[in-house]
């Protein structure tokens, strides 16, 4: 397993979401020698494409991905056709920003739309509609399985195998990839074998930690090393499968890290580099 340096580290904007705007987050990363980030779409919406491009150029921080594209969200007030148009626009913006991949989730359920197999079929249909556009723009679409605790609200795909079934069904390896988030899949007893079967289709590798006393379904992630996930072990499996990209730290932390100064958060992440 390779020894990581700061060049191998990507810190997602989401880690600084509540303390910084888009530009300020890149300034903070640059101060600590971090040159890679993943753009958080709500932060991008606040500044617009042109200001975002300027900020990346000035700070020298590039975006390797943009998160998240939601294939179909039943709670979105937009109708399905409008959501499709919104997702196509997201691909266009990603290409304009120069990112490599668009991290994509299926969306969840609601009290009316609550059939998981049907929701997965709908996700396949929506994903298939994006493939030609992504191919034309030279983008990767990275499908991300999420922890089953958010099946109802965020994703009807919970395991690596389930995600790969969708990738296999669409047979577009030039465009479709897998985003693997240790927070979402660490619990799976078959994870190692699933990762090795995936091979080099993993394009994004996200890390954080699962706190023993986690208090929120989504927004109480821990700093790597503060919880139960052996991120380095999972990374060893991912690299054995052929992954060699950056390690992406993605922390949603409403009660802890989002309350701390941004420089404190980035410094803490950099100190955890040996255990990522």
Beta-strand content: 5-15%
Largest sheet: 8 strands, parallel
Helix content: 40-55%
By helix and strand content, what is the structural category?
alpha/beta
| SSE string, helices as H and strands as E | EHEHHEHEHEHEHHEHEH
The overall pLDDT average reads 95
How is this fold's topology laid out?
Layout: E1 9-11, H1 22-31, E2 36-40, H2 41-47, H3 49-59, E3 62-70, H4 80-97, E4 101-105, H5 116-137, E5 140-143, H6 160-170, E6 176-181, H7 182-185, H8 191-198, E7 202-207, H9 231-240, E8 247-249, H10 262-271
Parallel strand pairs: 1-8, 2-3, 3-4, 4-5, 5-6, 6-7, 7-8
Characteristics:
alpha/beta; TIM Barrel; single chain; 8-stranded parallel sheet; 276 residues; 10 helices
Describe this structure in words.
The chain has 276 residues and is α/β, with parallel strands linked by helices. It is 40% helix and 15% strand. It has 10 helices and 8 strands. It has helices spanning 22-31, 41-47, 49-59, 80-97, 116-137, 160-170, 182-185, 191-198, 231-240, 262-271; strands at 9-11, 36-40, 62-70, 101-105, 140-143, 176-181, 202-207, 247-249. An 8-stranded parallel beta sheet has the order 1-8-7-6-5-4-3-2. Strand 5, helix 6 (160-170) and strand 6 (176-181) form a beta-alpha-beta unit. Helix 1 (22-31) runs parallel beside helix 3 and helix 4 (80-97) runs parallel beside helix 5. It is globular, with a radius of gyration of 18 Å. The mean pLDDT is 95.
At a glance:
The protein has ten helices and eight strands.
């Amino acid at each position: 397993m390779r020894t990581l340096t700061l060049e191998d580290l990507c810190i997602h904007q989401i880690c600084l979401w509540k303390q910084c705007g888009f530009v300020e987050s890149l300034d903070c990363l640059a101060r600590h020698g971090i040159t890679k980030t993943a753009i958080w779409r709500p932060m991008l919406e606040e500044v617009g494409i042109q200001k975002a491009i300027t900020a990346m150029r000035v700070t020298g921080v590039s975006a390797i991905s943009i998160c998240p594209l939601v294939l179909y969200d039943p709670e979105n007030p937009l109708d399905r056709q409008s959501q499709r148009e919104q997702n196509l626009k997201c691909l266009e913006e990603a290409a304009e920003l120069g990112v490599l991949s668009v991290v994509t989730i299926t969306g969840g359920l609601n009290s009316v739309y609550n059939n998981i197999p049907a929701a997965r079929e709908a996700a396949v249909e929506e994903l298939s509609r994006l493939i030609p556009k992504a191919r034309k723009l030279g983008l990767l679409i990275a499908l991300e399985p999420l922890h089953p605790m958010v099946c109802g609200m965020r994703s009807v795909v919970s395991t690596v195998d389930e995600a790969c079934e969708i990738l296999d069904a669409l047979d577009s390896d030039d465009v479709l990839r897998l985003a693997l988030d240790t927070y979402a899949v660490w619990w799976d007893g078959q994870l190692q074998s699933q990762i090795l079967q995936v091979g080099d289709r993993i394009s994004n590798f996200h890390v954080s930690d699962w706190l023993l006393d986690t208090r929120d379904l989504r927004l109480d992630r821990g700093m790597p090393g503060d919880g139960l996930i052996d991120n380095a072990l999972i990374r060893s499996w991912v690299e054995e499968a052929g992954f060699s990209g950056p390690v992406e730290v993605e922390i949603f932390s409403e009660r802890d890290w989002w309350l701390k100064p941004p420089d404190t958060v980035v410094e803490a992440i950099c100190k955890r580099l040996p255990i990522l």
